[in-house]
Amino acid sequence: MTRPATPPALRWLLPVMTLGLILGVMLGRGAESWLPPLAALSASLLAACLFPGRRRVFALILASAALGTLVTWHANHPDLPAEGEYVVSGVVLDELLSADDPGRIVTRLGDVTLNGAPLSGDAWWTSYLDADETLPDWLRPGARVTFTAEAYHPQGRSNPHGYDFRQALLQDGIILGLYG
Q: How far is CA 118 from CA 3, 50, 67, 122, in A?
């Protein structure tokens, strides 16, 4: 069975729409709200239905850019629980890292629940050991832990060329910070 041939006039549309999607992804990283990209997506899809010819093509390219912006905005702004104290349960996913600060340990937790409610991503756990305390032998990757911790929302960069801690965590699927 043979596939119907794509009309020559439309063969160039897919690469151009892909470039529009890429542009939308780049714009989505800096978007402040989801409303403008949603409005642009709605308007461009309506225009694609109403207009013929080149206007329809332009509307489709705009729709792909708006879709890229909307999806990227959503990925960079996950639904987060309120900051505050929670009973946390989770599985240690990474080796415990001891930072430059003596007694400080950090690791990634997966399968996280806060007061019994599941979290949609992983968490970054920071804790401090007392001066006379040592790291327990059982606290290794794969161990399930339950403790009380303060949940916080990781902050993004505070200056134009600074390190974006929030973005670095989001790229690894970590949406929440825990201290305690």
A: 46, 44, 28, 10
Q: Which long-range contacts (CB under 8 A, 24 or more apart) does 16-19 make?
A: 16/57, 16/61, 17/60, 17/61, 17/64, 18/64
Residue 31, token pair as written in the block:
């978007």
SS3 assignment, position 141: coil
Measured from the Cβ of residue 49, the count of other Cβ atoms closer than 10 Å reads 9
State the pTM of this model.
Answer: 0.65
Q: What would the pLDDT profile of 121-168 be if each residue is shown by its tens digit?
A: 899 998 887 777 777 777 888 999 999 999 988 887 777 777 888 888
* Residue linked to tokens 């929440």: 176
